[in-house]
Structure prediction request, 156 residues.
Amino acid sequence: MPNPPRVLILCTHNSARSQMAEALAREAARKAGIELDVHSAGTEATRVKDDAKIVMAEIGLDLSTHTSKTLYDVPDPWNFEYVITVCDSAAEACPMYPGQTVRRHYPFVDPSGGSLHRWRAVRDQQSVQFGAMVQALKGSQDVPPSYADSPPVPVP
Prediction:
């Protein structure tokens, strides 16, 4: 049996957007009945923000054991089928990957410092985007090339 596709979700601090996206991608894969090896990392490591933990717990996803990490803390960091950046600075700082790695950029507004409504809106946008990614993988289709290719959810 082949190994499941490996997905890396990269952000600047691995404290909010990438952590939420990792959990959402795993959950979407579980619900779709496909295996994915999903990781998240940052160009710098800090800590997972409490607001991220709160809004994910609201939908039954637990980030309490998640830790902020850099790319070099992820197992086999140069071997991913998909590398998804979720903020512009990570997209700019993302290292080059071998030719077979598919890179995508899904920029999400940074909810840090915002209300829980803003956090929930980003979470819901990510749920749509990573759900679309998982459905594409399940159907052996190309992963959506940008966030624009998934239905938008307004951010308050």
